[in-house]
Structure formats: structure tokens, C-alpha cells
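Check out one such.
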Amino acid sequence: MPAASPDAALTIVITTFNRSGYLSGLLDSVKALDPAPAAVVVVDNASTDATPQVLAAARAGFPVPLSVLRLEENTGGAGGFAAGVEAALASGAQWLWLMDDDVEVLPGAVAALRKWTGSYDCIHGRRFDAGGAPFFWQHRFVPFLGLHLPVRGNVFRDSPVFDTNVGCFEGMLISAAQVRRIGLPDARYFINGDDVVYGWLASLDRPVAYVNDFVIRKVRVQRQIDLGIRHLNDSSDLGRFTAMRNRGYTARYLQVHGQYRRYGFALGTFLTAGKELLRLVAVERTLRGAGRLWAGWRGARRILRDPSWFPMPQLAPGEPAPRKQQV
């Protein structure tokens, strides 16, 4: 099936939670896009800071339609993107550009991405880090382990496109047609791994592209260590818990698609726990929080044994109704 038209309506979908300062900068950068998107949808994950005020002020003079979807509770990045994608589809979006609130877009990003929309349905452009250097993101998902692993070397040496099979909600551009074929992002992940698996599901439908065009700049600085092939950032107790708990969801998706290998996945879970322990010791310089890894592993086991679990379903060809009323 051919990709959607490169001239189709593009809607930016932003998920935010208690980062009103970053959100304000992102919205300012969206205003400078040339060409501009057709619309913007912001999902406010029940923020308790100045986010509602920032959004109210932005809507007053925004150059394109700006819709705000405020959720009654924090559903995490996964739940926010599920709700935002659904709302954007209902409003007629044909392309959806998904991004967190702690990035800014570069002025020519829309034109740079449109070069590829005639060939692909899921596209990732390159990013700069907070210091202005290229941000490392070149991975492939390994079903045997249930992990995405970094790819060494210059992946753009021979081609401006690197074919991958993972996703990232810090800049994923995806067609509405593909969303309907693979379903909404799985809100049950809350945070951690939801975008990786969503990109993998997209790759089972059509190739996923990482293109040699810079379109986004990260603005939030994180503590990290340089491991040579990648950076390891700081995390949180919630991040550690979901890193392990969400292994259960990933295993279920692998089972649905006939790619679950028990012993390989167990090795991947061991490697995940090791990475999180390294993150604690080397980046955060503590072992406090290690217990959340054990709690997350137990949560994953419950998911694997849950007879009522189901994958996110495909969507009907028509437009779905939004989950929450827009304000």
C-alpha cells in the first residue's frame, strides 16, 4: 500500500505534564515553522503547574488551530499520546507528528520531513542534543531479546535513510492510515518502551525510516554518562519500575506476532535490569530505588499470566471519536 500524499494535512501532537516552561518554548518554536503544520493538539496530562495558563495564552494568537485536551488524571506519555492521536484523527489529521514537551522544532522541519512522506508511513528525523551536538538515536529492535540495541557506525554513510524497526515519540511522524492499521499507542505502558514497541508494530506493516535531516532540538539537560556508543541518562523510581513492568506488555506483543522466545526474552530482561542498576550506580550514584526493579519484574509476571490481556486493536476506516471532550 503506498504511503499517504506528501501534501496531506499534518497535525503536531504534544503530550505535556508539569513542564510549562519547556512547553512555552516548544510552542514558540512551532509558531516559527515554515511551512506551518495544519494544526496542533496538546494533551495536558492533568498538570498542576502553570500549563493551563501557558496554553490559554498561546491559543489567543496561535497561527494555526491549537486544540487542548486536558485529561482528568496523569496517564503518562503513553496515555497522553494515545488520547492525542485519537483526537487528531477525529479532527481529520492525515499525518501526525508526535513529540514530548521538552524539545523544540527547527524552522524548516516540516519541509524536511515532507520529502519522505511519499515513500514511508513512519518517519523519524534527526535531533540535536541540548548542547547542539547530534543526538545519538540509531537502534534496531531485536525480538529474540525484546530489546532495542544501538547500531554502530555512521548509518547515513551510504544512504540518507536508515531502515529501522523502532519508534520514538520524541519526533515520530506517522500517517493516519498506518495508525488505523496498527491501532493507537498502548496507554498501559504509561512511560518506558511504548514508543519502541509502537515503532516495531509499524515496521511489521511497512518500513520505518530514520532520515538524515535534523528537525528537532532537545532542550532538557539530563545527568548522563557516555558509554561510547550511547549515553545513559538519569531516571526515576517510576522509570525503573516501568522499565521492568513493561517487559510484560512487550512479551505479550511478541507472543501475538509469534516472535516470543522465552529464554531469549529472559536474557533481555536480565540485561534490562543490569542497565538500570548501572544507571543507578554510575549516573545517580546510589542504590536507592533498586527495589523498584524487583517490583516491576513482579508486575511483568502478572501481565504475562493475565488471561484477559489483549493487544491494541486496529481502528475502523472512519474517524474515531475523541476519548475526552476538548476544551
